[in-house]
Design goal:
Number of strands: 12
Distance between the termini: 71 Å
Order of helices and strands: HEHEHEHEEEEEEHHHEEHHHE
Number of domains: 1
Strand order of the largest sheet: 4-3-2-7-10-11-1-12
Structural class: alpha/beta
Low-confidence stretches: 1-29
Oligomer: single chain
Mean pLDDT: 92
Largest sheet: 8 strands, mixed
CATH class: Alpha Beta
CATH topology: Rossmann fold
CATH architecture: 3-Layer(aba) Sandwich
Length: 328
């Protein structure tokens, strides 16, 4: 009887050991699978026209059909916008049209005539056609599961394009903390009235009224993420994101007299995931050994800028976890 009892104990012990071993293997496999599914963010430290093309090709998603290239043409007086000579090769490789929408604040790009004049003065019309998409009004895109917005008002002409290359200048921003891919497809693709809609967290499309009654900061940040979700869902797989982290002022290209950059350039980053891309850019700023980063970090944190990414992730727009792939 004792032998039977001892045998039973040994059998149970062996089974338990096998169970632990299998459980451990399953956990390891899951971890590996998770790593494989993380969005990739590609990076070049050297900022050049050739590397812009190479990083586009590394993404493995070809821009086909009628291609829009979304960038900021820059407010008159601001010189931090992406240099047309830097981006010319990529824009022409994809046979792209540069797209923009008019602003919702007083300045040099509030109407189509002045906006096109600014684009010409900054050298963009010399490298590609420029389309001010809300010249003839806007159209609504639905927002899924938005807290503040049920629809996002974008330039009417945005519907004319088959593919969108989001070419962002990563830098600070006076209201959002930083401007990158999410800001570029939310505020950037929104019509003039749509910009007011986002800034007011869905309370008004009046471009004058909005500035007199701004919502709580987090409501605005969440509205940016919700507008970005609408654009991303509209495009599906016909969109990609490239950010150039140079001229790292605390101010956006929409500021006529921006603060001078206090830290050096970081590089070119790109991804198919806008949340991962923006997070990687911010992570690069924080990890930099450049002491000048303090001003930009203060701008991001004082505006609670990371909340935009938290809300975007909750909406399913992307992931703040990513795999960084260095290409140089």
């Amino acid at each position: 009887m004792r032998h039977i009892f001892n045998f039973a104990i040994m059998t149970l012990s062996f089974a338990a050991m096998c169970g632990c071993t299998n459980a451990g293997s399953k956990t390891t496999t899951t971890a590996n699978e998770e790593k494989e599914t993380l969005p990739k963010v590609y990076m070049f430290k050297e900022i050049s026209s050739d590397n812009l093309i190479k990083i586009y090709e590394a993404l493995g998603r070809e821009a086909k059909g009628k291609v829009a290239v979304k960038l900021s043409t820059g407010e008159p007086g601001n010189n931090n916008y992406l240099n047309p000579e830097l981006i010319k090769g990529l824009v022409q490789k994809v046979n792209g049209t540069i797209i923009e929408c008019n602003t919702a604040y007083a300045g040099g790009r509030t109407n189509t005539e002045n906006h096109l004049k600014a684009a010409e003065e900054h050298g963009f019309t010399a490298i590609a056609k420029v389309d001010i998409m809300d010249a003839e009004g806007d159209t609504a895109l639905p927002v899924k599961n938005g807290k503040h917005l049920k629809e996002d008002f974008v330039g009417k002409n945005f519907l004319d394009y088959d593919f969108t290359v989001v070419l962002s200048h990563f830098k600070g921003h006076p209201m959002g903390g930083f401007g990158g891919a999410i800001k570029n497809i939310s505020i950037g693709i929104a019509s003039s009235e749509g910009k007011a809609w986002i800034h007011s967290a869905g309370q008004t499309k009046d471009q004058e009224e909005v500035w007199n009654n701004l919502p709580p900061q987090d409501d605005f940040l969440e509205s940016m993420a919700e507008a970005a979700e609408a654009v991303s869902s509209h495009c599906g797989d016909n969109i990609l994101y490239i950010s150039v982290a140079n001229n790292l002022s605390v101010d956006c290209d929409c500021v006529a007299t921006p603060e001078a950059p206090e830290m050096g350039d970081i590089g070119i980053l790109a991804s198919l995931d806008p949340v991962a891309l923006d997070r990687a850019c911010v992570d690069m700023v924080r990890a930099s050994e450049d002491e000048g980063k303090a001003a930009l970090i203060e701008r991001i944190d004082s505006r609670n800028g990371m909340h935009t990414l938290d809300h975007a992730e909750q909406l399913g727009l992307g992931s703040q976890k990513y795999e960084l792939v260095k290409l140089d």
